[in-house]
Amino acid sequence: MSTKLKNLIFILDNDDIQSFSELITTKIMSGNKNHLVFFNNYIQNELSEKNKVIPVSDRLLMSDLCKMIEKYLVMKKAANAAHFYDMTLMGIYRIHENEKLFNDILHTAQKREKLSLKNADYYAEISEIYFEKWQFDQLKNRFGNTEADDIIMMEEISLISKKLKQTVILAPQSSLISKKINTQFIDYIESYIIEKNYLEYPCISVFYYAIKMLFYPDDLQWFDRFNHILTSYEQHFSVEELKTLYFQAINYCIRKHNLGNKEFSKKLLEYYMTALKKHYLLTNGFLSKNTYRNINTIAIRMGKYEEANKITLDNAKFLRKEEKESAYQFNLANIHYAKHEYDLALNALRIAEFDDHLSNLFAKTLMLKIYYETKETRLLDSHLDAMQVYLTRKKIIGYHKTNYSNIVKYTRKLIRLKPYDQKAKEKLAESIRNEKLLPDRDWLLRQVG
User: Fold this and answer.
1) For the whole prediction, is pTM greater than 0.90?
2) I need a surface site. Which of 227, 263, 381, 410 has the fewest CB within 10 A?
3) Phi/psi of residue 303, each to 5°?
4) Long-range CB contacts for residues 87-92, cutoff 8 Å, separation at least 24
5) What's the CA gap between 370 and 337, in Å, rounded?
6) Do 347 and 359 fall within a single domain?
7) Whose CA is closest to 58, among 44, 38, 29, 32?
8) What number of other Cβ atoms are within 10 A of residue 342's Cβ?
């Protein structure tokens, strides 16, 4: 049985467990010896809890310990949050009107903020420091230099940046499920942002241009401006923010790459390699199998087989254990296919097992190409039927369904194409070029000849 206490203890490391046990009987935790004894016994013997019935008295102790651990986690977080620490002390010293103590912590806070990232949190924290100073100054001289405009401006910069960032984070998911995100507030404040010259602040401009890039993808100026701000001011942002920004850049380049834009294929690989190097693509220390596959595929499509092999080998260690073998084998299959080593590619695909639609569709598409290029017409025909049934029956949403339906459609047209009918070839090639969503456009055009 998995209780709340077990889950809470699971997220504590050994140092936390030691520190917490020392605090149980203190006034701050309000625990007693019974809590301490139960906790120590629980740690030593009862992490599994199995399926036994827990007595009411033990349940009460467990409930108390859960509240204590949660308090401990909050205290630990607060103690390590420098700005929260400074602002709490400033507030206490202001209430007691102790100018020396207030100024000491004020100078410490101001010195620390100068070394901070220049993101939304920075401007919010500076605004809070100035406002705390303003409140203290009011105790001494109500007509002093309040710097009210600076306080308001920095708070505005923070608020606008946070709102823009939130929109950038939510918009891709909104697009995936075909539900337009509400951008009325962004539309409303856009003129204000421009009027106040707030685009001069990278924490606003990078998210503003990201939104423009998302909603006006055909206007390349927005990507150019976004790319300039991101690469010029990367040091202003936290790792989490950079993960979000690189995600947007990569997704934008993927769309352009799928439309056959070679310049964006190059830019896409550059973004991927930078993000890999700086671990921006890792979530909780793991690399997504889809990202792992995508980087390998892009490198292959650009003819960089050795680089694709190195990416595959070097980054397999970041894959989740249960996904590692299949993802690794698929990447190897992709490389073998590109080098026309068809038997090796098919062998690798047979080893790989996928439990998600997207990975299955990638593997099915690779098999489709192999069957076509090796002239296995019967296998290809039945494979296309199976792929179409898969696309019809499975709940595959967004542009992925359109992508793979188009691959099936144009491969069927290739099969029916008469070798010496030049007009039919030209007509098919034109249709392939004009198709909006078609990631394997180049392969199809090569087969048309």
Assistant:
1) no
2) 263
3) 80, 15
4) 87/125, 87/128, 87/129, 87/132, 90/129, 90/132, 90/136, 91/132
5) 7
6) no
7) 38
8) 17
pLDDT tens for 194-241 read 999 999 999 999 999 999 999 899 999 999 999 999 999 999 999 999
Last residue in a domain, options 131, 158, 185: 158
Q: Rounded CA gap, 249 and 237, in Å?
A: 15
Residues with Cβ < 8 Å from 281, sequence gap 6 or more? 243, 246, 272, 275, 287, 288, 291
- Tokens standing for 87? 């602002």
Distance CA 226, CA 235 (A): 15
| Dihedral-angle region of residue 303 (phi above 0 means left; psi in -120 to 50 means alpha; beta otherwise) | left
Say if residues 387 and 404 touch (Cβ distance below 8 Å).
yes
Query: Domain span at residue 143?
Result: 82-158
| CA-closest candidate to residue 441, choices 255, 251, 260, 254 | 260
Amino acid identity at 375: K
For the chain, the domain total comes to 4
Does residue 105 share a domain with residue 30?
Answer: no
- Token couple for 323: 């996904």
Residue that is written with structure tokens 């290809």 in the block: 380
